[in-house]
Write a structure and sequence with these properties.
Elements (H helix, E strand, L loop, with lengths): L1 E5 L7 E2 L2 E2 L1 H17 L4 E5 L10 H17 L3 E4 L6 H4 L3 H4 L4 E4 L9 E5 L2 E8 L4 H8 L6 H17 L6 E7 L32 E5 L5 E4 L2 E3 L16 E7 L5 E8 L6 E6 L1 H6 L10 E6 L8 H8 L3 E6 L12 H5 L4 H12 L7 H24 L1
Family: Belongs to the SbcD family.
Protein name: Nuclease SbcCD subunit D
GO molecular function, one term: exonuclease activity
Length: about 400
């Protein structure tokens, strides 16, 4: 059986204030064309269909069109909600839409009830694990504790229990939206840290034949059976080096992944990250290849030059982001505050602040737990308000 694995469409998202709806429409045209050209048996969409809980109407219209075209193609589609989606909104009409072969899995209660497809070799059970906010689903799933690993383990226990009761030889696929250890993140993903820990081990998904992951925007192979498709478009300059693709997966009669091919997605405009002094960037002939790219320029001039954006866009008309990082000596007291915070989590920044106001005395274990709990409560409160809408 052949599957097309994709995720993280983020319909409605822009790129540094540049609308991407036309590029997203071109991707969906490409997806439907691939389904026909490559004789795909089912489409797997591993979450973050929309970019936010209440998407703009043009994004909803684009999603509606995509569903109609997939249904008309007669190709089953299994889709889960991600941490950017409103699970309740995305799941509206799920039972009715299922009659057209579009299977929306947004309710944790349905984790153990797969979509079952059949080919000449027997059944394939597809289990959809929507994004699971630990504090909101722990009790319902019977997880032993709060945390991503605990709730995903509880969810997978339900999957394995259902699979054990199916005929011998039933093949299995899981769709999940999570940060799995070994995956490389970018600046585009929304933080899902709980108690300072967001990554879960790939072993959580043991016992199934293929795991179609969403959340991380780079296409990645964690094991031959556990893969991220990545997003079809770049949503931050940290993705400048990504090759945007979908996975075309052939699952054999015995459940083995017989073939895994990356199918390239359309690129609306290449990305470029340039760094150097302004005059050097304007004069460097080797940068001519980036004159039609979306550009992020980091200027290292010791003194901020006059009208830098106007001068940059004269050569690079699609410059979207300008960063100043002046060349300084190691002991310079004016070193960038942003630079000191780079790659540090909210919890680490808060701990540093507490240590600063205490004259260097850091947090003890109990205080650190309280601080982590406060960050979790803020996010869970926001998620709970969304669920209640």
């Amino acid at each position: 059986m052949r599957f097309l694995h994709t995720s993280d469409w983020h319909l409605g998202r822009s790129f540094h204030r540049v609308g991407l709806l036309d590029a997203q429409a071109a991707f969906l045209d490409h997806l439907v064309a691939t389904v026909h050209a490559r004789e795909v048996d089912a489409v797997l969409v591993a979450g973050d269909v929309y970019d936010r809980a209440v998407p703009p109407l043009p994004a909803v219209a684009l999603f509606d069109s995509a569903l109609h075209r997939l249904a008309e193609a007669g190709v089953p589609t299994v889709m889960i909600s991600g941490n950017h989606d409103s699970a309740r909104r995305l799941g509206v009409g799920a039972r009715l839409i299922e009659r057209a072969g579009i299977h929306l899995r947004t309710d944790p209660a349905g984790i153990g009830s797969p979509v079952v497809l059949r080919d000449a070799h027997g059944d394939v059970a597809l289990y959809g694990l929507p994004y699971l906010e630990p504090a909101l689903v722990r009790a319902a799933l019977g997880a032993e504790r709060t945390g991503h690993e605990a709730v995903l383990t509880a969810a997978m226990d339900r999957v394995r229990a259902d699979l054990a009761g199916r005929p011998a030889g039933t093949r299995s696929i899981v769709l999940a939206h999570a940060f799995v250890a070994g995956g490389a993140a970018s600046d585009s993903e929304r933080d899902i840290t709980v108690g300072g820990v967001s990554a879960v081990p790939a072993a959580v998904f043991d016992g199934v034949d293929y795991v179609a992951l969403g959340h991380l925007h780079g296409s990645q192979t964690l094991t031959p059976r556990v893969r991220y498709s990545g997003s079809p478009l770049a949503y931050s300059f940290s993705e400048a080096d990504h090759r945007k693709t979908m996975w075309l997966i052939d699952l054999g009669a015995d459940g083995a992944v017989e073939a895994a091919e990356r199918v390239d997605c359309p690129v609306p405009r290449p990305l470029a990250r340039l760094r150097g002094r302004l005059e050097d960037l304007l004069a460097d002939a080797a940068l001519a290849r980036h004159e039609d790219s979306w550009v992020e320029a980091t200027l290292t001039d010791p003194v901020r030059p006059a009208e830098p954006m106007a001068r940059l866009t004269a050569r690079f008309p699609h410059t979207l982001n300008l960063v100043f990082d002046p060349e300084r000596t190691a002991g310079d007291p004016h070193a960038s505050y942003a630079g000191r915070l780079r790659d540090r989590t909210d919890q680490q920044i808060a701990e540093d602040f507490v240590a600063h106001v205490r004259g260097g005395a850091g947090l003890d274990g109990a205080e650190r737990a309280i601080l982590y709990g406060a960050f979790d409560d803020v996010r869970v409160d926001a998620a709970g308000r969304e669920v209640g809408r």
